[in-house]
Specification:
Elements: H1 9-16, E1 24-25, E2 38-41, H2 45-49, H3 51-62, E3 69-72, H4 78-83, E4 90-97, E5 103-110, E6 113-117, H5 119-131, E7 137-140, H6 160-173, H7 187-200, E8 206-210, H8 217-230, H9 237-247, E9 248-249, E10 253-256, H10 264-274, E11 282-284, E12 289-293, E13 309-311, H11 315-338, H12 344-349, H13 351-365, H14 377-388, H15 397-401, H16 404-421, H17 427-444, E14 449-450, E15 453-454, H18 462-469, H19 476-481, H20 489-492, H21 495-509
Parallel strand pairs: 1-5, 2-3, 2-7, 3-6, 4-11, 7-8, 8-9, 12-13
Antiparallel strand pairs: 4-5, 10-12, 14-15
Helix pairs in contact: 5-7, 6-7, 11-13, 11-14, 11-16, 11-17, 13-17, 16-17, 17-18, 17-21
Bound molecules: D-mannonic acid.
């Protein structure tokens, strides 16, 4: 444990008198006592390296202190315990490489987070924060699984966590405040209950900015929210639903920045640069993109002056990013792990995988996209592969491989369906799905080792996936394609798709340079 002082506004002020290194960018000199204008659900590393940075830069550009962020954690109090002693202050360590491989580092100190709440102990405060009049925006990064959607679309009303939260919502809509402090069990439950509390108190308009990797994310979440409220048995649900439709906007947004898990080596690099200990440090590449539909119910930060793009049509940017970047990312994660690559940078440096990644982009992803003048897809392909090659950030294949059952429909299956509808067989996407299948097969048989570590399947559907994966390898594709929680019937029953996935599985199972796949010996 280092003996350095802990980062905080006071420690930084005392420390700055000695001057900060050029690579350290200090926080914006804003009034941190001003009432926060944003509540963010899911204050994980991605939010702190992305929206919170753009919000800080926008505030600095206009000396505008209205947009402090109240962060809400999901599963634990760790981020609150990291940031509270630091007054919300933390660093974003930017890591990249010069063309000759020399590491390039910078450290952004971010002060836009004003408070962090853990619903397990602070639910009433979360509800009050969402309802507070100065709050104009609620944003979310709760990952694909946080919305509790049914695989075939719409809310998953059979989900026990959602059911628990809808009971609490019904109580609040019935005017009972006794459950206000009871924690929700889902992120969308927290959102709904906070909106209900706002409706029941100030009724002030609000904008919900979804920042997760979902297609058409804002409108999709709006539909979920409306369908859930319309299904509520509470007498006042209809009035609440009308308020939602009239006063709460759900613009779409596309977010992009590669943010790996923070390691002790990252923390040591930041401490060496800053001279203070930062328990809330996050790590990122220099690249950052945020494209937001300019449809707000009230005031917003001047995010365009913090690096974001405001537009009236996010869809082409979303589709391009999810299918080209995230689809290739997931392919390299599964294929890379199967071939023993611990890092994405190693997987994309593997000549065979690099060629297959390019084939996925050129043969399937790009042809499935609507052509728009604003996006140079070939240039985007090169920039994505170059970003993946950034070995300085240490982005692991296993981190990206997480939650495949939630990511496949968004990153692979939409592309596959569009290509089949166009009369083409998406062989590259089928190969990527096959790599995921083999990843499921080997990890659930406890026989995949990457970087000297046994890999476990980290997925909300890990149990049914393990059940389906059990059995002979040559019928694995049929067993997994039969899972309607992942594969829609129109796709799973298409013989062209089935044949392509089976062929893909034979191919990836034959990779001789795959030391990692013990199960196939
Ligand atoms: C990654 C994304 O973990 C993953 O699934 O593909 O987090 C990716 O790094 C971001 O979407 C990049 O913007």
């Amino acid at each position: 444990m280092t003996s350095l002082d802990r980062l905080s506004p006071a420690a930084l002020d005392a420390h700055r008198v000695h001057g900060l290194p050029d690579q350290v960018r200090p926080p914006a000199p804003l009034d941190r006592s001003a009432p926060p204008g944003i509540v963010h659900l899911g204050i994980g590393a991605f939010h702190r390296a992305h929206q919170a940075v753009v919000t800080e830069r926008a505030g600095a550009a206009h000396n505008d202190s209205r947009w402090g962020i109240v962060g809400v954690t999901q599963r634990s109090a760790s981020v609150r315990d990291q940031l509270a002693p630091q007054g919300g202050l933390y660093g974003v360590l930017e890591l990249s490489q010069e063309p000759d491989g020399t590491p390039r580092t910078a450290l952004d100190l971010i002060g836009s987070v004003r408070d962090v709440l853990f619903p397990g102990e602070d639910t009433a405060k979360v509800m009050e924060a969402i309802a507070a009049t100065p709050t104009r925006i609620v944003s979310l990064t709760v990952t694909e699984k946080g919305y509790r959607r049914h695989p075939q679309g719409g809310p998953d009303f059979a989900d026990p966590a959602l059911g628990h939260d809808l009971d609490l919502l019904a109580r609040e809509l019935g005017g009972k405040r006794d459950a206000l402090a009871t924690p929700s069990r889902s992120a969308i439950g927290t959102l709904l209950r906070g909106l209900a509390h706002r409706w029941a108190t100030s009724g002030a308009p609000l904008t919900v900015v979804v920042c997760d990797n979902l297609l058409d994310n804002g409108p999709q979440v709006a539909q979920l929210v409306h369908r859930i409220v319309d299904s509520s048995p509470a007498k006042s649900a209809e009035a609440f639903g009308s308020w939602l439709r009239e006063s709460v906007a759900f613009p779409a947004s596309m977010v992009d920045r590669i943010v790996p898990a923070t390691t002790d080596a990252h923390r040591a690099t930041a401490e060496h640069l800053l001279g203070l200990r930062d328990a809330g440090l996050v790590v990122a590449e220099p690249f950052l993109q945020w494209v937001i539909e300019d449809r707000f119910a009230g005031p917003r930060p001047a995010w365009e002056d913090g690096g974001a793009t405001l537009t009236d049509n996010v869809t082409p940017y979303e589709h391009t990013k999810l299918r080209v970047l995230n689809g290739t990312h997931s392919f390299l994660a599964y294929a890379g792990a199967l071939r023993g690559h611990a890092l994405i940078a190693d997987a994309v440096a593997d000549p065979e995988l690099n060629a297959l990644a390019r084939e996925l982009i050129d043969s399937d992803a790009i042809p499935s996209l609507e052509k728009v003048d604003e996006i140079d897809v070939e240039g985007y392909r090169e920039s994505v592969l170059e970003r993946f090659a950034n070995g300085a950030i240490g982005h692991t294949t296993v981190q990206i491989a997480m939650d495949g059952s939630q990511k496949l429909p968004i990153r692979f299956l939409g592309t596959a369906a569009d290509r089949l509808a166009a009369g083409a067989v998406p062989h590259a996407i089928a190969r990527a799905v096959a790599a995921w299948m083999l990843y499921v097969y080997t990890t659930t048989q406890d026989s995949l080792e990457v970087g000297g570590t046994r890999v476990e399947l980290d997925d909300p559907l890990a149990t049914p996936l393990a059940d389906a994966a059990r059995g002979p390898l040559d019928s694995l594709a049929d067993r997994l394609l039969a899972m309607d929680a992942i594969f829609p019937a129109h796709l799973a029953e298409d013989p062209r798709w089935r044949d392509a996935v089976r062929a893909g599985l034979r191919e990836v199972s034959s990779w001789s340079e795959a030391p990692a796949m013990g199960a196939l010996r």
